[in-house]
Amino acid sequence: MNAQTPPRPVAVITGASSGIGAVYADRFAARGHDLVLVARRGDRLAELGNRLWARYGVAVRPLVADLSTEPGIAAVEALLESDAGVTVLVNNAGLSRLGRFIDLSPADHASLLMVNAVAPSRLARAALPGFVARDSGTIINIASANAVSPYPGTTVYSATKSFVLSLSLGLQNEVEGTGVRVQAVVPASTATEVWDGMGIDLKDLPPE
């Protein structure tokens, strides 16, 4: 009797339809991970999933979810809590709003906090019990250089990214000595669609 091929590990990536999330999807697919790609735009997810399947032969499940909403977060939580094959969570989904603290509306404040702080915290909480029980798993949280060096007009955004960085450092301490890993990524200005919400044209940024 032939031994069954073990199932491939699964990486769950939020904000996967473009930018940093799409790059993570490609990298994990290249390493042999099946994928669950989370974003608001189902057409983008389908296009990316088809491309990665054709290139790497991995299984790709799209999960359309808006992480600025309670149902969107709950849908991803349910997946993380129920699928023991998940070995990686990439908390990449992010929202940007450029403007002075007093000029942003309460709705802007709420959406920034929900997507950038509440969602990664709750998804990490959903994934960790299984990771700890299996003594294996990785959480990658995408923060920002603004977490440690906010500039005018990014006060709320920067505060949410400071939360992500502090959350990551705290979780690193809590899982020390186990097979679970927590990583914070702190990119500087990166050419992604996050700038669309800030009203800044990428051509106006220094090339470096």
Please write out the topology.
Elements: E1 10-14, H1 19-30, E2 34-39, H2 42-56, E3 60-64, H3 70-82, E4 86-91, H4 106-134, E5 137-142, H5 155-174, E6 180-185
Parallel strand pairs: 1-2, 1-4, 2-3, 4-5, 5-6
Helix pairs in contact: 1-2, 3-4, 4-5
Give an account of the 3D structure.
By secondary structure, the chain is α/β, with parallel strands linked by helices. It has helices spanning 19-30, 42-56, 70-82, 106-134, 155-174; strands at residues 10-14, 34-39, 60-64, 86-91, 137-142, 180-185. The protein has one domain (10-204): Rossmann fold, CATH 3.40.50. Helix content is 43%, strand content 16%. The chain has a 6-stranded parallel beta sheet with strand order 3-2-1-4-5-6, sandwiched between helices. 38% of the residues are buried. The model has no long low-confidence stretch (mean pLDDT 91).
Strand content: 15-25%
Question: In which order are the strands of the major sheet placed?
Answer: 3-2-1-4-5-6
Question: Which quaternary structure do these chains form?
Answer: single chain
Structural class: alpha/beta
Mean pLDDT reading: 91
Total separate domains:
1
CATH architecture tag: 3-Layer(aba) Sandwich
**Topology pattern, helix = H, strand = E:** EHEHEHEHEHE
Please give the share of residues in helix.
Answer: 40-55%
Low-confidence stretches: none
* CATH classification class: Alpha Beta
Number of strands: 6
| CATH H level, superfamily name | NAD(P)-binding Rossmann-like Domain
Tell me, briefly, the overall form. globular
Count of runs of 4 or more consecutive helical residues: 5
What is Rg?
17 Å
Largest sheet: 6 strands, parallel
CATH topology: Rossmann fold
